[in-house]
Amino acid sequence: MAVSVKVMSLIVACLGVISFLFGVVAENKKPASGTPIPGKGLVTCQYPSDPTVVLGYLSVAFLLASSSAGYFSLFYPYHGKSVPRGALFKNSSFSIFFNIALFTTGLAMTLLAWPTLTEQLHLSRSVHYDLETACPTAKTGLLGGGAFLSLDSSLFWLVALMLAGNAREDYFDEIEENGTSAQTLQRSA
User: Fold this and answer.
1) Which residues does UniProt assign to the signal peptide (predicted)?
2) What is the residue range of 52's domain?
């Protein structure tokens, strides 16, 4: 099966939607806090069983896959014809959306990974010597925000892919025009 722009678009979009869904479900399943169990000079936090950490990591993984596919799709030589990167970045709209896609990917990665790692640390370090501890969990809202940015990121990769297609067409039209005019000059000489 030949890789086409449509196939790559579907891959980027599907992976982005899956990342979004995992992030939203992780946010909704996250407990508000744990239950403190006092002991001699310490408090042990007991947290309910929840899939937040696993869903958070899955959301991060699918975001990485979506962004990698998006990046790869921009520079892939479709139909065996490659385009120099400089020719793509001559198009200012492509450059802008490429940078926005990179920025939203980084921000989404941060907003998904930070609360996921924090939640994992809270679960693994459940013994506290501060008797006033309230058994905290990761900050509420960050996973949901990261999920929406993950979806935005995949959409920006899709826009960049469409603009790369336009830049590709312009590049090949320019090559064809220059080739035709060079052949015309050689015939007249």
Assistant:
1) 1-26
2) 5-32+47-113+138-188
